[in-house]
Amino acid sequence: MAAQQIPNLSTFRRGRGRSTGLGRGAPSSLSDEDDKAAKDRIVQQTDQDASVSRLSAVEIGYLIDPFAKRFVSGPSQRTYVRTKAIDDLVHRFLSSSSSSPTSQRKQIISLGAGSDTRFFRLQSQSPPYQPFLYHELDFPTNTAQKITTITSSLDLLNLIPGRELTISDNGSALASAPYHIHPVDLRTLSATSAPPAPFKNIDPTLPTLIISECCLIYLTPALADSTATYFTQTLFPPTTPLGLILYEPINPHSAFGKVMVRNLATRGIVLQTLHKYDSLEAQRVRLREYGLRGGQDAKTVDEIWEQQ
To answer: Model pTM greater than 0.90?
Structure first.
């Protein structure tokens, strides 16, 4: 993969499979015994899938089971903690009192949002949050696919107030009162980009939370930094309350990290900022360099899990 290419992650987000130790570059032929073992693992994994589903049902109050989380482990555990931790931070942001005396409205910007459903999950909360703006940024190919899904799904359309949408002629951009999808290559953003283009619906005066969930890590370190600082130092003035959630792998030199890097490499995927920001402390320094100096913290998935 060329240094400045970004993989299209939509296929991976839809659960087409997690790379094994051999990855896609492994020989395609298996012995009968190996084939049987592989099929057994698939069946066995359904128990973890069920455990994650049960844990989700517990979290939203459908079930009462204080022991469910103890039986979720491995990649399923990390996926659960990742989603739950980000959801909790978003909830705290939307539920907190605004520092602006003139408005309680807030704004969320999701970088590389892909098929993420967080906006719709937030809209389905009861009681509802105070009105907020939600922006998603991704490649035009991904945004067009998502807009097609939204416009053909009544349950999604019903969560957009008034179901009043404006869609671009090429189908890659969507605008509504609370929800906006922007087709953009993040690599084109830098301190020299003229704000607010290409985001005419982003309000630089509103308290804003930016989410990068395994997004900036696919850019070169220079491009990742210039993209982040476009938002933290160019688009938003110092007077605007601004936060950034970063979810990224760290510790590439650990045993797990080495396996992860090797597996992703067999799929042509390079985590380009992994070695520059390889620890929690490096991530903390990174946030300070972006101009985010107050209220910051950094924790591993394992640390968050132990606090549950």
So the answer is: no
